Amino acid sequence: GEPKTWYGVPGSSAEKLENCMKSYAPELFSKTPDLLHHLVTTMNPSVLIRDGVPVIKTHQHAEKFVITFPRAYHAGFNQGFNFAEANNFCPTDWLPMGRCAIDHYKEMKRYSVFSHDELIYKLASECQYLDPDIGDATKFELDYIGVTDTDRVCFELMPDDERQCDACKTTCFLSAISCLCKPNILVCINHVDQLCSCSPKKYCLWYRYTIDEMSNMLDALRERLDLCQKWKILVNRLISNDHQNLIDFNDIEKHTTSGVLCLRDDIRIKMEEKLAEAIEYRQMAKNILKRITCKDELIENNNNDDDLNKKKKNFNDENKVTLNDINQLKKSSKIN
Pairing between strand 175-179 and 203-207? Predict the structure, then answer.
C-alpha cells in the first residue's frame, strides 16, 4: 500500500519528551496521569525539537520493517490506503527494560498488558532460557506492617481485572493484600497504605510462593547458569582454531547435544559444523587405518619397519586424532 510516515523519540530521551508535554498541558496530566499512553495524545514534532527533544523521521514503504524499542515513543500517519501489521517480540535483554516499564506504569497508574513477575517466574521455573531479573521482586517483611493472616493463591488462574492493584493498576502475581472491609479490593505490597484505614491486623496477605520456594528457584537458576557457563567455556575450546591438543571425539559428540539450550544459535551452528567435520575426518582415519592394516598383513613376515608399526600404534586410538594429523594423512594418501 501507500507509505507510512513515522516520527520517533529514542528511549534515552523519553523523560525529556514527557516533561516537555507535561509543561504544555499540566492541567490535562493532573486529571489523566497516563495521558502519554493514550493513542490520541500527540504533539507537534517542531515543538519537541525546539525544546531539545531529538525526533527522528522516516518513511516506511511496502515490504519494509520499522522496529520500535522499549521506552521509545513513536507516532505517525498513513499517506494513503495500506495494510500494516504490528508484532511484539520479547528477547532476553528486554526483561530488565520490562521491569522499568512496569515501574513506570505504576507511576502513571496504567493497566499492565501482562504480569511481568509472572513472566519472570514462569521462565525461572522452567529453567531453560534464563535472565535472572527477579531481584526486583521484593521480599516483603510482614511484621513491619503487622499483617498476621495469609492465604496462598494461584494468581495466574484469576482474571487480570480481578488481580490488579487498586492504587497503581499493576497486575499482581507474587503477592497482594486485602482487608475484611473490602474483600473485593486488592493492593500490591507497595501501596498497603492506600488500602483502607483499618488496622493491619485485619489485612490478609495473598502470596503465590513461599520464601523457601523462591530460594530454591534462585538456587536452581544459579546452578543452571553455572552449567551454562562451564559449557560455554568448553564449547569455545572445542571450536577454537588451536588443534595442538587431542580432543576425544566422544566428548565432542556428547557436548554438542547436552548443552544446546545454553548456546546462542551462532555458537550452536559452529559446534554442529565441527561435529560434522570430525565425523568426516574420523571416517577418513578409519579408511587409512584399514589400508595400513591390510598392507601390514601382506608384508608382516618380511617387513618389520619401526616407522610403520609406530603409525599403526598412533592410529589405533581412532577417536583421538588432531586435524593437523588428518591433513597430513590426506596429503600423503590417495583416498578413493
Answer: antiparallel
Q: How far apart are alpha carbons 92 and 197 in whole angstroms? A: 41
Q: Which three cell numbers stand for residue 53?
A: 527533544
Note down pLDDT in tens along the chain; length 336 residues: 899 999 999 988 989 999 999 999 998 888 888 888 888 888 999 999 999 999 999 999 999 999 888 788 999 999 999 998 888 777 766 777 777 887 888 777 777 777 777 777 766 666 544 444 433 333 333 344 344 566 778 888 888 888 889 888 888 888 899 998 888 899 988 888 889 888 888 888 888 887 777 777 777 777 777 777 777 777 777 666 555 555 566 665 665 555 555 555 666 677 777 777 777 877 887 777 777 776 655 555 455 555 545 555 554 444 444 455 555 554 444 333
What is the pTM (predicted TM-score) of this model? 0.44
Pairing, β 203-207 against β 149-152 = parallel
- 333: closest CA among 284, 298, 293? 284
DSSP state letters, 199-264:
-GGGEEEEESS-HHHHHHHHHHHHHHHHHHHHHHHHHHHHTSS--SS---HHHHHHHHHHSGGGS-
Question: Are 17 and 9 contacting, i.e. CB atoms less than 8 angstroms apart?
Answer: yes
Q: In this structure, are residues 198 and 180 in contact, taking their beta carbons and an 8 Å threshold?
A: yes
